């Protein structure tokens, strides 16, 4: 059975979280590789917002896990801290990331 998504009152269709973690990673991974390949410093939310990426099955844990995977695979490195621009965080501190040479090679391939 296919689930239907109710449009919001303003006509927009909300993004539905992925059914499982692996499917979600496959969907969002290219956007983060592309962000890393630019060489600019970014936050996780800035990439999510720019590409309108869906939430994972467990947003409280999976966004951080994704960033750890990208770092462990050598695509990003920590760059520092910034105030979050996510509306629900009240400008709390978040880690910033920067792409590595591996990310630039991946995007060029």
The proportion of strand residues reads 15-25%
- By CATH, the architecture is named Orthogonal Bundle
Q: What is the CATH C level class, in words? A: Mainly Alpha
Distance between the termini: 38 Å
In percent, how helical is the residue content?
40-55%
Strand order of the largest sheet: 1-3-2
- The domain tally reads 1
Largest sheet: 3 strands, antiparallel
Low-confidence stretches: none
Count the helices. How many?
4
Structural class: alpha+beta
List SSEs in N-to-C order: HEHHEEH
How would you explain this protein's 3D organization?
The protein has a single domain (21-108), classed as Orthogonal Bundle (Arc Repressor Mutant, subunit A). The protein is built from four helices and three strands. The chain has helices at residues 21-37, 44-51, 59-72, 101-108; strands spanning 41-42, 76-83, 93-99. The relative contact order is 0.20.
Question: What's the short story on this structure?
Answer:
By secondary structure, this protein is α+β, with helices and mostly antiparallel strands. Helix content is 43%, strand content 16%.
Which features characterize this protein?
single chain; 109 residues; alpha+beta; Arc Repressor Mutant, subunit A; three-stranded antiparallel sheet; 4 helices; 3 strands
Helix and strand arrangement:
Blueprint: H1 21-37, E1 41-42, H2 44-51, H3 59-72, E2 76-83, E3 93-99, H4 101-108
Antiparallel strand pairs: 1-3, 2-3
